[in-house]
């Protein structure tokens, strides 16, 4: 990496808004640029460029929507005290809702000024060193031995019941194996086991592709982006679930996904499904694994995998993995062992539905958290803690949540092995106290309630918006210009 | 293009923010890491984590992100 160095910077760096996020950069001209220097560019490029590119409520009076939203349950009362000093000019083209959400976050989280964010960064780095010194980045292989015992037990049960002809029970245990194994694949994808890129990747591919029939490479590709731009509606693939779910009103406008490089059209099916998304959440989550299979195949067959560099061969191993998976699962189990089509469908459904607590767990950590974009001056640790929540559970239940209950800590230190996250939690609490960043933690039950209420909230906003549109159309009121 | 190439590219040259902005305007992928200016155009295709994460860090100080995700931490102990 350092061989690509072309120079140094003096002092501290003020971030630009990247091109992919809509940032504008001025060409450099030797003669006139040396004098005007940095001050001008700091203002115009990073702050306003970070705003979403399009207004949302273009056809209705946004004020009335806001007023009605405030009275609805679930809306925080502190919304009304936003420190929006620059709102009238820079945020002028934004809709009120987006503005409110940003203001709410800015009132809850430390200020975005340079000194404050720099202090957070320094404390974050010091904490990293401290945890490194205490061995929290060293993998606890004993814990993985216990994991492996559990996997083997579940796999054995799957096999025994299959031999006995208890198709449903057998499928249940296979589902349990998949549910549990995904956590280790996740660790491997983050190089959180041996910390060796190739070794961990092979572990991950064996689990995800050979045993699970999914693609580790697909998952890593989207997961890396998710970790960098967590909960940003245009950029984070993990919250881009149109037409099924939208966790922000910003999806009401067709946005361009920079991850998929396509328009997320807010079409008729999305309009319908988003209005009932708080009811469809669990049923759809139960079938989520089928979608993962689709995305995995898309990744492998469309050549989205890295073709160069150290990861060039992973795609070939993954393709072998797919063949092996469909041989044992599709041919040996589904086709050869199961006697008829009804038991085959039953087996397929049960084995795919049982791991669904995992999908709930994955979405839980982010769906109820903020999707507001505070711009490029926000430090990495603050952004992670603002967009991610943890789940409070008893230590004996750790296996069920598989480390994802410490999602916020994991987002701060992604390469920390899973079994050390609980130990790291007390340091993170201390860090949050010192930096005054709120640490979001809910029980699994309350976390679920949060997600459902967020989904319901967005559904309600959509309904209100449509009502407004309708009444405007009926009364013949025309929207004024922005 | 020609104008930016005039500048010597020795590793310790101090580059101004305005100059770096110009590089990015030229389509270069420039990120900041621990006070260093890295131009990663040759690397981006080889990045095992894909191109998108790098594109999201263009023009930004990626120190914390790189240290969090990439295998540098442990080597430094």
Write the layout of secondary structure elements.
The complex is a heterodimer of chains A (482) and B (77).
Chain A: E1 5-8, H1 30-47, H2 62-71, H3 87-90, H4 96-108, H5 114-133, H6 141-164, H7 167-189, H8 197-211, H9 216-228, E2 255-257, E3 262-264, H10 268-275, H11 277-286, H12 288-301, H13 314-337, H14 341-353, H15 356-367, H16 380-387, E4 390-392, H17 398-401, H18 407-412, H19 421-435, E5 441-443, H20 444-475
Parallel strand pairs in A: 4-5
Antiparallel strand pairs in A: 2-3
Chain B: H1 2-5, H2 17-25, E1 30-33, E2 36-39, H3 52-55, H4 63-69, H5 73-76
Antiparallel strand pairs in B: 1-2
Just name the CATH architecture of chain B: Roll
Helix content of chain B: 25-40%
Task: Domain count of chain B, please report it.
Answer: 1
Give helix and strand order of chain A, one letter per element, not per position: EHHHHHHHHHEEHHHHHHHEHHHEH
The total beta strand count of chain B reads 2
Describe the main β-sheet of chain A briefly: 2 strands, antiparallel
User: How much strand of chain A?
Assistant: under 5%
Name the descriptors.
heterodimer, A: 482 residues, mainly alpha, two-stranded antiparallel sheet, two-stranded parallel ribbon, 20 helices, 5 strands, 59% helix, B: 77 residues, alpha+beta, Flavocytochrome B2, Chain A, domain 1, 5 helices, 2 strands, disordered C terminus
């Amino acid at each position: 990496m350092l061989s690509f160095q072309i120079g140094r910077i003096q002092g501290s760096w003020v971030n630009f808004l990247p091109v992919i996020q809509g940032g504008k950069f001025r060409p450099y001209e030797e003669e006139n640029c040396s004098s005007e220097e940095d001050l001008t560019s700091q203002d115009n490029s990073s702050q306003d460029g970070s705003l979403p590119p399009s207004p949302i409520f273009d056809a209705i009076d946004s004020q009335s929507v806001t007023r009605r939203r405030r009275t609805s349950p679930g809306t925080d009362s502190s919304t009304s005290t936003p420190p929006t000093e620059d709102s009238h000019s820079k945020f002028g083209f934004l809709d009120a809702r987006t503005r409110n959400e940003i203001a709410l976050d800015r009132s809850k989280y430390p200020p975005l000024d340079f000194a404050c964010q720099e202090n957070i960064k320094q404390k974050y780095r010091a904490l990293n060193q401290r945890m490194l010194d205490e061995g929290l980045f060293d993998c606890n292989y004993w814990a993985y031995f216990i994991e492996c015992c559990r996997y083997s037990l579940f796999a054995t049960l799957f096999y025994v019941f299959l031999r006995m002809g208890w198709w449903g029970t057998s499928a249940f245990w296979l589902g349990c194996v998949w549910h549990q194994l995904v956590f280790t694949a996740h660790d491997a994808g983050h190089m959180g086991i041996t910390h060796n890129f190739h070794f961990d990747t092979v572990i991950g591919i064996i689990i995800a592709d050979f045993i699970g029939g999914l693609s580790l490479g697909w998952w890593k590709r989207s997961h890396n982006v998710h970790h960098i731009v967590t909960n940003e509606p245009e950029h984070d693939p993990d919250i881009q679930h149109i037409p099924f779910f939208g966790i922000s009103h910003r999806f009401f406008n067709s946005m361009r996904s920079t991850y998929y490089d396509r328009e997320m059209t807010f079409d008729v099916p999305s309009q319908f499904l988003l209005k009932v998304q708080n009811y469809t959440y669990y049923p759809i989550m139960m079938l989520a694994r089928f979608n993962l299979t689709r995305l995995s195949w898309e990744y492998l067959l469309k050549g989205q995998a890295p073709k160069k560099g150290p990861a060039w061969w992973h795609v070939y191993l993954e393709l072998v993995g797919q063949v092996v998976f469909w041989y044992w699962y599709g041919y040996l189990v589904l086709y050869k062992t199961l006697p008829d089509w009804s038991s085959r469908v039953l087996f397929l459904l049960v084995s795919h539905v049982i791991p669904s607590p995992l999908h709930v767990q994955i979405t839980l950590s982010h769906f109820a958290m903020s999707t507001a974009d505070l711009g490029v001056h926000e430090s990495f640790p603050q952004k992670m803690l603002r967009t991610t929540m943890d789940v409070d559970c008893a230590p004996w239940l750790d296996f069920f949540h598989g480390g994802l209950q410490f999602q916020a800590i994991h987002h701060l230190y992604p390469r920390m092995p899973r079994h050390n996250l609980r130990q790291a939690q007390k340091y993170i609490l201390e860090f949050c106290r010192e930096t005054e960043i709120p640490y979001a933690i809910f029980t699994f039950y309350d976390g679920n309630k949060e997600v459902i209420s967020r989904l319901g909230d967005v559904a309600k906003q959509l309904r209100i918006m449509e009502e407004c549109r309708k009444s405007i159309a009926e009364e013949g009121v025309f929207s004024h210009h922005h | 293009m020609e104008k930016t190439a005039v500048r010597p590219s020795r590793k310790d040259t101090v580059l101004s923010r305005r100059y770096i902005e110009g590089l990015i305007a030229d389509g270069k992928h420039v990120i900041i890491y621990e006070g260093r200016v890295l131009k990663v155009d040759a690397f981006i295709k080889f990045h095992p984590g894909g191109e998108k994460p790098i594109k999201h860090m263009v023009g930004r100080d990626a120190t914390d992100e790189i240290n969090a995700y990439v295998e540098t931490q442990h080597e430094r102990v």
